[in-house]
Write the structure tokens for this entry.
Amino acid sequence: MRLATVTTHYGSTAALWQGGWRRLPEPDLSAFLREHAIADAPDLASDELVDAQPVVLLPTPGKVICCGLNYGDHIEETGREKPTYPTLFAKYADTLIGPDEPIELPAGVEADWEAELAVVVGTALRRATRAQAAAGIAGYAVANDISVRDWQRRTLQWFQGKAWDATTPLGPVLVTPDELDPEAGVEVVCRVNGVERQRGNTKTLVFDSAALLAYISTFTVLRPGDVVLTGTPGGVGMAMTPPTYLADGDVVETEIAGIGILANTVRFAA
Amino acid sequence: MRLATVTTHYGSTAALWQGGWRRLPEPDLSAFLREHAIADAPDLASDELVDAQPVVLLPTPGKVICCGLNYGDHIEETGREKPTYPTLFAKYADTLIGPDEPIELPAGVEADWEAELAVVVGTALRRATRAQAAAGIAGYAVANDISVRDWQRRTLQWFQGKAWDATTPLGPVLVTPDELDPEAGVEVVCRVNGVERQRGNTKTLVFDSAALLAYISTFTVLRPGDVVLTGTPGGVGMAMTPPTYLADGDVVETEIAGIGILANTVRFAA
């Protein structure tokens, strides 16, 4: 199944793809995942929506937890060793934007791209085993953990480089695990102004989706609609020679085969 | 003014202290700060509550952002230099507990104390000046950023040692800035089983409350009821010789003169 939050002439709604977008109860996919079992979506789908366009997939996740240093080639380009434990940091829902919304930043910051597979939680998980965590995955989406490198480097903690409002594209749809198997491998790609900058395969992840959810659930509950970003492959701008950052008007395309494409334009405020 | 979330025989409510606790509209202080201006509290207070006890001060803040390395003596004990920028990390509302609730942890982790002044946001702040940030402070509370040091040290990012559910006491009340001036200096104290372990004064903070709110608002909006923890003074357990951590049954008292005392017992799960 493919689900999304879409806008129509009548406002936004959760929706299920069945040749066209069909209306689900609840105004967005965050609310739908909190209120319903995802398996019930086909029974709950009603009228087909005209001119529906996906917007930010999950507007109100309680938690957006990110894993850094999770692809072998990206670990290498940062000069670090393969980790024993996942490196985790948090961001807030205010960071999230839709699949074609602008990435809004002040002029002059060192903004970099990080294409990622996002895993969306479907059932509450606390001290979950790997099997429970795997069964608790609602599905997968595309994300780009746009990072403000100069702020990320200001201190030991990355948070202030990662938590800028309206900088993290998420979407365009959620694809359920029966249709997509990141453990078998899907390609995660980032292009900037049409030039490919990143290409990784999720089968090379050090910690896969189920491993990350189980690990996180050791210390905090994960709830339906929470999001975990699984890390980025090699090819980020700060590792280029010379380091290269996003400029006003640049178009960042983030693609995962089997899910879709995000296309977001960088907008620097004056 | 002193405000809190209290429980009575009839459930929980936001409340204002006027010789006794008087009922405010909204079921808790998070909801009250979202829905009302704090200056209106005296006009909105109604019947006096019998047997009211403060519980977790803010049950649903959207953001709980913490500053590390903000007291000179704590910076020294961690072997670091006085910072140019605040070191920030995030936790979630699930970490918060009330002024006398247990700190719940699995047996065997290295749990440490961090007494802190908490600043609570009263008005929405985005790209705020220092003056706007100061005017946007709803008030102050006591917090203890109980930290799981072995998990904090597993990776470069502290989040996984700081975000354990039900480990961060917050309260007992919110005191408005007209009654408490941390810039002039208030004492922040931590005792474990009655033995004083930390004592710092907020006048020695590298970044004070207004500075932290203004800085954070550069990259993300702060909303009424959001919480910023301003860092801990010297005297944490990991800096003792030998390093000393909390044991099952230990009582952690966290006190700020002019606000109150939190008294939380450590409970290790079997």
